[in-house]
Amino acid sequence: MKVKQNPFSFYDFLGYMLPGAVLLYIVTFIFGVDDIVTKLSLEETSNSTASQLLSFIPAVICSYLLGHVLAIGSSALIEAFTNYSNGYPSEFLFDVKPEAYLSSDTCGGQLGRVVLWFLILPISVFKLVLKDTLKIKMFNQAKSLPKSLREATFKKCIAILSEDIKVDTSQMKLENGIDGDYLRLLYHFIFENSERHSGKLQNYVALYGLTRNVSFVFIVLFWGAVYSYFFARQLNIGLMHIGLFATLAYVFYIGFVKFYRRYSLEAVMAASVFSKKDG
Fold first, then answer.
1. C or N: which end of the chain has fewer Cβ atoms within 10 Å?
2. Helices first, then strands: H and E counts in the chain
3. What dihedral angle (degrees, nearest 10) is formed by the CA atoms of 54, 55, 61, 62?
4. Distance between CA atoms of 132 and 130, rounded to whole angstroms?
5. Could you report the per-residue pLDDT of 187-235, keeping only the tens digit for each?
6. The dihedral of CA 182, 183, 186, 191: what is its sign?
7. CA 251/CA 86 separation, integer angstroms
Protein backbone atom coordinates (compact mmCIF):
# COMPACT_ATOMS: atom_id res chain seq x y z
CA MET A 1 0.00 0.00 0.00
CA LYS A 2 1.31 3.40 -0.98
CA VAL A 3 2.00 5.92 1.74
CA LYS A 4 -0.08 9.08 1.44
CA GLN A 5 1.96 12.23 1.81
CA ASN A 6 0.48 15.51 2.89
CA PRO A 7 1.83 17.94 0.26
CA PHE A 8 1.97 20.79 2.76
CA SER A 9 1.85 20.53 6.53
CA PHE A 10 1.81 22.91 9.48
CA TYR A 11 5.45 21.99 10.13
CA ASP A 12 6.38 23.05 6.60
CA PHE A 13 4.69 26.39 7.26
CA LEU A 14 6.58 26.86 10.53
CA GLY A 15 9.83 25.88 8.84
CA TYR A 16 9.54 28.98 6.69
CA MET A 17 7.70 31.34 9.03
CA LEU A 18 9.88 30.93 12.13
CA PRO A 19 13.21 31.93 10.52
CA GLY A 20 11.55 34.93 8.89
CA ALA A 21 9.91 35.90 12.17
CA VAL A 22 13.18 35.60 14.09
CA LEU A 23 14.91 37.88 11.58
CA LEU A 24 12.13 40.47 11.66
CA TYR A 25 11.94 40.41 15.47
CA ILE A 26 15.67 40.91 16.01
CA VAL A 27 15.95 43.60 13.34
CA THR A 28 13.01 45.41 14.94
CA PHE A 29 13.79 45.09 18.64
CA ILE A 30 17.59 44.65 18.73
CA PHE A 31 18.65 46.81 15.80
CA GLY A 32 15.83 49.24 16.56
CA VAL A 33 14.36 49.48 13.06
CA ASP A 34 10.95 50.59 14.34
CA ASP A 35 9.56 51.35 10.88
CA ILE A 36 8.96 47.63 10.39
CA VAL A 37 6.42 47.63 13.24
CA THR A 38 4.47 50.47 11.66
CA LYS A 39 4.51 49.08 8.12
CA LEU A 40 3.42 45.63 9.25
CA SER A 41 0.69 47.11 11.49
CA LEU A 42 2.05 45.49 14.63
CA GLU A 43 1.16 48.45 16.83
CA GLU A 44 -1.99 48.18 18.89
CA THR A 45 -4.70 49.89 16.81
CA SER A 46 -7.75 48.82 18.78
CA ASN A 47 -8.67 47.27 22.08
CA SER A 48 -10.77 44.57 20.45
CA THR A 49 -9.29 41.08 20.30
CA ALA A 50 -10.26 40.68 16.64
CA SER A 51 -8.45 43.85 15.62
CA GLN A 52 -5.32 42.84 17.52
CA LEU A 53 -5.31 39.39 15.89
CA LEU A 54 -5.85 40.86 12.42
CA SER A 55 -2.95 43.26 12.97
CA PHE A 56 -0.57 40.29 13.05
CA ILE A 57 -1.61 38.90 9.66
CA PRO A 58 0.76 41.12 7.60
CA ALA A 59 3.66 40.15 9.89
CA VAL A 60 2.86 36.44 9.53
CA ILE A 61 2.66 36.69 5.75
CA CYS A 62 5.86 38.71 5.57
CA SER A 63 7.66 36.25 7.86
CA TYR A 64 6.54 33.32 5.73
CA LEU A 65 7.62 34.92 2.44
CA LEU A 66 10.91 36.06 3.95
CA GLY A 67 11.44 32.48 5.15
CA HIS A 68 11.39 31.27 1.55
CA VAL A 69 14.09 33.78 0.63
CA LEU A 70 16.15 32.65 3.62
CA ALA A 71 15.68 29.01 2.59
CA ILE A 72 17.10 29.74 -0.86
CA GLY A 73 20.08 31.54 0.67
CA SER A 74 20.75 28.86 3.26
CA SER A 75 20.62 26.12 0.64
CA ALA A 76 22.98 27.99 -1.68
CA LEU A 77 25.49 28.85 1.06
CA ILE A 78 25.26 26.70 4.18
CA GLU A 79 24.29 23.40 2.58
CA ALA A 80 26.87 23.92 -0.17
CA PHE A 81 29.58 24.61 2.41
CA THR A 82 28.63 21.46 4.32
CA ASN A 83 28.82 19.30 1.21
CA TYR A 84 32.16 20.81 0.18
CA SER A 85 33.77 20.46 3.60
CA ASN A 86 32.23 17.21 4.91
CA GLY A 87 31.01 15.47 1.78
CA TYR A 88 27.44 14.25 1.43
CA PRO A 89 25.96 12.32 4.38
CA SER A 90 25.52 9.33 2.08
CA GLU A 91 29.30 9.39 1.73
CA PHE A 92 30.63 10.18 5.20
CA LEU A 93 28.23 7.67 6.75
CA PHE A 94 30.34 5.07 4.95
CA ASP A 95 33.59 6.67 6.10
CA VAL A 96 34.39 8.33 2.77
CA LYS A 97 36.94 11.04 3.47
CA PRO A 98 35.99 14.42 1.97
CA GLU A 99 38.20 16.01 -0.62
CA ALA A 100 40.11 19.15 0.27
CA TYR A 101 37.81 22.17 0.51
CA LEU A 102 39.62 23.93 -2.35
CA SER A 103 39.65 20.86 -4.60
CA SER A 104 37.53 22.34 -7.38
CA ASP A 105 38.83 21.61 -10.87
CA THR A 106 38.58 25.22 -12.02
CA CYS A 107 40.00 28.49 -10.73
CA GLY A 108 36.51 29.94 -10.75
CA GLY A 109 35.30 27.09 -8.58
CA GLN A 110 38.14 27.59 -6.11
CA LEU A 111 37.48 31.33 -5.98
CA GLY A 112 33.79 30.63 -5.38
CA ARG A 113 34.63 28.39 -2.43
CA VAL A 114 36.91 31.05 -0.95
CA VAL A 115 34.12 33.62 -1.25
CA LEU A 116 31.68 31.14 0.29
CA TRP A 117 34.07 30.54 3.21
CA PHE A 118 34.11 34.27 3.99
CA LEU A 119 30.38 34.79 3.46
CA ILE A 120 29.61 32.34 6.26
CA LEU A 121 32.63 33.40 8.31
CA PRO A 122 31.26 32.52 11.79
CA ILE A 123 30.53 28.94 10.72
CA SER A 124 33.74 28.41 8.78
CA VAL A 125 35.95 29.84 11.56
CA PHE A 126 34.25 27.93 14.38
CA LYS A 127 34.42 24.74 12.33
CA LEU A 128 38.10 25.28 11.57
CA VAL A 129 38.97 25.84 15.22
CA LEU A 130 36.61 23.53 17.13
CA LYS A 131 36.21 20.60 14.76
CA ASP A 132 39.19 20.56 12.40
CA THR A 133 41.94 21.86 14.70
CA LEU A 134 40.90 21.00 18.28
CA LYS A 135 38.90 17.95 17.08
CA ILE A 136 36.25 18.28 19.79
CA LYS A 137 33.91 15.33 19.25
CA MET A 138 30.68 17.10 20.17
CA PHE A 139 31.18 19.45 17.22
CA ASN A 140 31.72 16.62 14.75
CA GLN A 141 28.25 15.59 13.64
CA ALA A 142 29.51 14.23 10.30
CA LYS A 143 30.21 10.81 11.81
CA SER A 144 30.51 7.48 10.03
CA LEU A 145 28.86 4.20 10.94
CA PRO A 146 30.85 1.38 12.59
CA LYS A 147 32.69 -0.77 10.03
CA SER A 148 30.51 -3.88 10.34
CA LEU A 149 27.32 -1.81 10.09
CA ARG A 150 28.67 0.08 7.08
CA GLU A 151 29.24 -3.16 5.22
CA ALA A 152 25.84 -4.64 6.08
CA THR A 153 23.81 -1.53 5.24
CA PHE A 154 25.71 -0.85 2.03
CA LYS A 155 25.12 -4.41 0.82
CA LYS A 156 21.35 -4.17 1.45
CA CYS A 157 21.09 -0.71 -0.14
CA ILE A 158 22.85 -1.99 -3.25
CA ALA A 159 20.46 -4.93 -3.38
CA ILE A 160 17.40 -2.64 -3.29
CA LEU A 161 18.86 -0.29 -5.90
CA SER A 162 19.63 -3.21 -8.18
CA GLU A 163 16.63 -5.48 -7.67
CA ASP A 164 13.77 -3.10 -6.86
CA ILE A 165 14.77 0.18 -8.52
CA LYS A 166 16.63 -1.46 -11.44
CA VAL A 167 19.78 0.67 -11.14
CA ASP A 168 23.10 -0.54 -12.52
CA THR A 169 25.19 -0.88 -9.34
CA SER A 170 28.14 -2.72 -10.86
CA GLN A 171 30.45 0.28 -10.39
CA MET A 172 29.34 1.14 -6.84
CA LYS A 173 31.84 0.35 -4.08
CA LEU A 174 31.73 0.68 -0.31
CA GLU A 175 34.75 2.98 -0.22
CA ASN A 176 32.85 5.50 -2.36
CA GLY A 177 29.63 5.40 -0.35
CA ILE A 178 26.21 5.93 -1.92
CA ASP A 179 26.04 8.75 -4.42
CA GLY A 180 23.64 11.51 -3.42
CA ASP A 181 21.31 10.88 -6.38
CA TYR A 182 21.07 7.20 -5.50
CA LEU A 183 20.25 8.11 -1.90
CA ARG A 184 17.39 10.18 -3.26
CA LEU A 185 16.10 7.08 -5.02
CA LEU A 186 16.33 5.11 -1.78
CA TYR A 187 14.50 7.87 0.07
CA HIS A 188 11.58 7.84 -2.36
CA PHE A 189 11.49 4.05 -2.46
CA ILE A 190 11.29 3.81 1.34
CA PHE A 191 8.79 6.65 1.55
CA GLU A 192 6.48 4.94 -0.93
CA ASN A 193 6.87 1.44 0.49
CA SER A 194 7.39 1.71 4.24
CA GLU A 195 4.87 3.66 6.30
CA ARG A 196 6.86 2.97 9.46
CA HIS A 197 9.76 5.13 8.30
CA SER A 198 8.05 7.78 6.17
CA GLY A 199 7.04 9.90 9.18
CA LYS A 200 10.58 10.04 10.53
CA LEU A 201 11.96 10.93 7.12
CA GLN A 202 9.52 13.85 6.82
CA ASN A 203 10.37 15.05 10.33
CA TYR A 204 14.10 15.01 9.67
CA VAL A 205 13.66 16.91 6.41
CA ALA A 206 11.64 19.57 8.26
CA LEU A 207 14.17 19.76 11.10
CA TYR A 208 17.29 20.03 8.98
CA GLY A 209 15.60 22.66 6.82
CA LEU A 210 14.54 24.68 9.86
CA THR A 211 17.96 24.60 11.56
CA ARG A 212 19.73 25.43 8.31
CA ASN A 213 17.45 28.42 7.71
CA VAL A 214 17.82 29.72 11.29
CA SER A 215 21.59 29.37 11.02
CA PHE A 216 21.48 31.54 7.91
CA VAL A 217 19.35 34.10 9.78
CA PHE A 218 22.16 34.55 12.30
CA ILE A 219 24.73 34.79 9.50
CA VAL A 220 22.71 37.69 8.07
CA LEU A 221 22.41 39.25 11.54
CA PHE A 222 26.14 38.77 12.15
CA TRP A 223 27.06 40.79 9.06
CA GLY A 224 24.38 43.35 9.92
CA ALA A 225 25.90 43.69 13.39
CA VAL A 226 29.42 44.03 11.96
CA TYR A 227 28.24 46.79 9.63
CA SER A 228 26.34 48.54 12.43
CA TYR A 229 29.29 48.34 14.81
CA PHE A 230 31.66 50.08 12.39
CA PHE A 231 29.38 52.34 10.37
CA ALA A 232 26.13 52.88 12.32
CA ARG A 233 27.13 53.30 15.94
CA GLN A 234 23.81 54.99 16.75
CA LEU A 235 22.17 51.54 16.71
CA ASN A 236 24.08 50.56 19.87
CA ILE A 237 25.26 47.26 18.43
CA GLY A 238 28.39 46.05 20.22
CA LEU A 239 30.87 43.22 20.15
CA MET A 240 28.59 41.19 22.39
CA HIS A 241 25.93 41.14 19.67
CA ILE A 242 28.47 40.18 17.01
CA GLY A 243 29.78 37.32 19.15
CA LEU A 244 26.28 36.14 20.08
CA PHE A 245 25.05 36.06 16.46
CA ALA A 246 28.23 34.26 15.35
CA THR A 247 27.85 31.65 18.10
CA LEU A 248 24.17 31.03 17.37
CA ALA A 249 24.91 30.69 13.65
CA TYR A 250 27.35 27.88 14.43
CA VAL A 251 25.10 26.22 17.01
CA PHE A 252 22.23 25.96 14.52
CA TYR A 253 24.69 24.86 11.82
CA ILE A 254 25.69 21.94 14.05
CA GLY A 255 21.99 21.15 14.46
CA PHE A 256 21.57 21.22 10.69
CA VAL A 257 24.46 18.79 10.12
CA LYS A 258 23.04 16.49 12.82
CA PHE A 259 19.58 16.31 11.28
CA TYR A 260 21.02 16.20 7.73
CA ARG A 261 22.93 13.10 8.80
CA ARG A 262 19.94 11.58 10.59
CA TYR A 263 17.75 12.04 7.53
CA SER A 264 20.28 10.17 5.39
CA LEU A 265 20.86 7.57 8.10
CA GLU A 266 17.12 6.95 8.41
CA ALA A 267 16.84 6.35 4.66
CA VAL A 268 19.84 3.98 4.68
CA MET A 269 18.71 2.04 7.76
CA ALA A 270 15.13 1.83 6.52
CA ALA A 271 16.40 0.36 3.25
CA SER A 272 18.56 -2.08 5.23
CA VAL A 273 15.63 -3.57 7.16
CA PHE A 274 13.06 -3.28 4.38
CA SER A 275 10.99 -6.33 3.50
CA LYS A 276 8.06 -6.71 1.13
CA LYS A 277 5.58 -7.01 3.98
CA ASP A 278 6.50 -3.48 5.20
CA GLY A 279 4.41 -2.01 2.44
1. N
2. 12, 0
3. 180
4. 6
5. 889 888 877 788 888 889 999 999 999 999 999 999 999 999 999 887 8
6. negative
7. 17
